[in-house]
């Protein structure tokens, strides 16, 4: 979750988390220690955000102008544009390497300060930092809010499902836009294969998502584990919830992979 940008925190904290991971992997700093790639320690999107955004060419409205632009693009003018793009891309790659080297140097300096810290202590310190985010313990789903009481247009959000509440986050923001305890949720379910409906008291929220079934399953699991009756999904009779198994919870945006696959991901821990 940290590397994919789903734990909103400061860049300073991200560097500290990377240093703690190095301490956990390699113990005390040494010039002979194996170094993971930076993208295995630090969110790549933070580095890319430092680069200037690409300039967009204004749209060509006139048909004749579009035709002339097309003819020019196939000739010498097109070759010149391609050369300019290649030079710009090369400059951006160089800038990205510089930013990466600067960030790695800052991480190493923080790693040196952890000398003598054992692996369990480094892991505990890592988790303690991540727990500072109010959304810790939730499973996040990437959704588009399609309908709301104020009639707003589609909006990309994180839908966070935790043991006590469902929360909506603006991506990258640490505080939720809104949060609903389960006692306020009157119904939920799939309107179709890609639309999830959540009714909160007198509000109906519709989300476009590719994980409709996973969201519904997780909501049912939390309701069942809390001893509440399962809310019926559309076109589904109300029945008693199956016995919940916390080891089979959907992973949302955070599928487990690599050496951590037998441990719950940070976003699925419970306090």
Automatic annotation (TrEMBL):
Domain FERM: 1-233
InterPro entries: Actin_motor_Myosin (IPR051724), FERM/acyl-CoA-bd_prot_sf (IPR014352), FERM_2 (IPR035963), FERM_central (IPR019748), FERM_domain (IPR000299), IRS_PTB (IPR002404), PH-like_dom_sf (IPR011993)
UniProt superkingdom: Eukaryota
Disordered: annotated segments: 229-271
PROSITE patterns: FERM_3
Name of this chain's protein: MYO10 protein
Gene name linked to the record: Myo10_1
């Amino acid at each position: 979750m940290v590397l994919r940008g789903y734990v909103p925190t400061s860049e300073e904290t991200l560097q500290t988390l990377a240093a703690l991971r190095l301490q956990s992997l390699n113990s005390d700093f040494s010039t002979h220690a194996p170094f993971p790639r930076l993208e295995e320690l630090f969110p790549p999107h933070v580095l890319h955000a430092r680069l200037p955004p690409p300039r967009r060419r204004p749209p060509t409205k006139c048909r004749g102008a579009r035709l002339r632009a097309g003819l020019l693009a196939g000739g010498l003018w097109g070759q010149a544009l391609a050369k300019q793009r290649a030079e710009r891309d090369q400059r951006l790659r160089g800038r990205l390497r510089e930013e990466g080297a600067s960030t790695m140097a800052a991480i190493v300096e923080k790693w040196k300060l952890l000398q003598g810290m054992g692996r369990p202590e480094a892991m505990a310190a890592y988790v303690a930092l991540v727990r500072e985010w109010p959304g810790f313990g939730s499973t996040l789903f990437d959704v588009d809010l399609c309908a709301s009481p104020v009639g707003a247009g589609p909006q990309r959000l994180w839908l966070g499902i935790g043991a006590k509440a469902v929360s909506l986050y603006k991506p990258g923001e640490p505080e939720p836009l809104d949060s609903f305890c389960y006692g306020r949720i009157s119904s939920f379910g799939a309107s179709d294969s890609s639309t999830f409906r959540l009714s909160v008291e007198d509000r109906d929220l519709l989300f476009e998502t590719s994980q409709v079934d996973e969201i519904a399953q997780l909501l049912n699991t939390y309701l069942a584990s809390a001893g509440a009756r399962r809310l019926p999904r559309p076109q589904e009779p109300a029945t008693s919830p199956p016995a919940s198994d916390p080891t089979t919870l959907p992973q949302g945006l955070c599928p487990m992979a690599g050496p951590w696959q037998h441990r719950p991901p940070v976003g699925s821990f419970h306090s």
